Amino acid sequence: MPTDLEIAQQTKLRPITEIAAGLGLCVDDLELYGAYKAKITFDAVRRVGEQGRHGRMVLVTAITPTPAGEGKTTLAIGLSQALNRMGKKSLVAIREPSLGPVFGTKGGATGGGYAQVLPMEDINLHFTGDFHAVTTAHNLLLAMLDSHLHHGNRLGIDVRSISMNRAIDMNDRALRHAVIGIGGRTNGVPREGGFEITAASEVMSILALSNGIADLKERLARIVVGSTSSGRPVTAADLKAAGAMAATLRDALKPNLVQTVEGTPALVHAGPFGNVSIGCNSIIATHLGLHLVDYFITEAGFGSDLGAEKFLNIKCRVAGIVPQAVVIAATIRALKCQGGADPRKLAVKDLDALHNGLPNLYKHVENIQLHGLTPIVGLNRFATDHDDEIACVREAMAEKCVRMALTEVWANGGAGGMELARHVLEVVDCDDPPAEGGFRFLYDLDASIAEKIERIATAMYGAEGVQFAPAAREKIKQFEAQGYGRMPICMAKTQNSLSDQVALKGRPEGYRVTVNDMRAAVGAGFIIAYAGNIMTMPGLIAEPAAEKIDLTDDGRITGLF
């Protein structure tokens, strides 16, 4: 089997103008970035949005990630390809990759095998510059803040209250904490600072949640950078930074159009992480896709406890959308990891470990059902899976009355996703009234901040409760006094466990989630709760993926997955 990169480079791409034409878009609707990728103009987005057509949406999430892989993005792409093979009009919408994981350990975010979005090298390395625009807009705000401090601090900002770090799209642990402004009076005001990865930036979340230019500018203006000595929040509007930030993000706000290995159209736009941010692609791309096709497939970062929970309780509220079904990606290998199997022996049949790992899948199924939605399990098959292991998962899902499809989209593209596509169509095209009242949010916005966090932790993670550190309790009081209490919650926690503790595998019980700190992302419109030992700036591993990436003399990229 060739590598992902070899498959991508061997694929004959169609001109992006042809892909657009299949969606009813003309050349004037595009801003071309070469022959195979383009941005869709604001005029086209507006015109398409005025059409009466509105497709059906399927959200793809996953079980708790393990090094064995779950294939969530690959499954989403393969499902859209399968639907098109069946004569349905479908596209897939995913997030943009961050250079941090590309050069680090996780790899890119373009799928794999014969279920990829292309050109994968371009998408994984710089793409159309959206990440760089977010980085620049974020750092512009901080530069204007520090300039304001240097030139007399007319607003009376308490330097100790500054709550934003600078951003960079890289894994770099040395930048987590820093002292800036040193070197004398001409070099600014000394203060503690640091960096977070661009995918964790509030500006990235704003890009994903804005519905247009006016909304973008309003959200940017509301970003809180700190407070005065009297406790009044200081915003980007106070620093007169929002206009220039919006201008920097003008092109980044336009959704990107590319294609899959099989020529299925794909929208790739915005890239907030799912563990420390909202984990969803942009609202603009979502609304556009829903008006262009009959079946819109999208994904949310990591498992149902992270990306899907935020998609359903933050993005759906803001965008006014509801998925008609949710696919949960899983693999035999990952389930065995959750059940305690030796990661070096996953090719060995181990029904005991598989049985022990199934409760993790059960919990993700329940998480979707908690929202009144229908879960469908997509079991991505590996060549090392044993027939009786597959039968075990089928039987377990049948006992729970949950649909399950075996998929082979990595090896066979859309042809390997036909069983899943049939299940999806049966669910989303059903005219029967939804059971138990249909879709519902996990919590009411009128609940207190602490109550909303408790609801997420107990209902989605299975925790017994939440323990708030003194700093977190103080922030809750502060935010509610400032009028931020009705905002939804964005939990920042490890993706490697349903809990806030990396070591707890499977379906942990008998623990409490610890919330150490809080932050009000007022521009994005949510409260961030930092649970457990969570960081917003990753570091590189001992042998990062960057060591294998190279460029040949004829300009061809090698070593990229």
Q: Can you walk through the features of this model?
A:
The protein has 19 helices and 24 strands. Helix 12 packs parallel to helix 14 and helix 14 (351-369) runs parallel beside helix 15. Helices cover 35% and strands 18% of the residues. By secondary structure, it is of the alpha/beta class. The chain has three domains: 53-122 and 262-431, P-loop containing nucleotide triphosphate hydrolases (Rossmann fold), CATH 3.40.50.300; 130-251, Domain 2, N(10)-formyltetrahydrofolate synthetase, CATH 3.30.1510.10; 449-531, Formyltetrahydrofolate synthetase, domain 3, CATH 3.10.410.
Core attributes:
24 strands; 35% helix; Rossmann fold; 18% strand; 3 domains; globular; alpha/beta; 561 residues; Domain 2, N(10)-formyltetrahydrofolate synthetase; Formyltetrahydrofolate synthetase, domain 3; twelve-stranded mixed sheet; 19 helices
Level-1 CATH class name of the largest domain? Alpha Beta
Supply the CATH architecture of the largest domain: 3-Layer(aba) Sandwich
First-last Cα distance: 13 Å
Fraction of residues in helix = 25-40%
* Structural class by SSE content: alpha/beta
Shape: globular
**Which consecutive residue ranges, at least 5 long each, have pLDDT under 50?**
none
Average pLDDT level? 96
Q: Biggest β-sheet, characterized?
A: 12 strands, mixed
- Rounded to the nearest angstrom, the radius of gyration is 23 Å
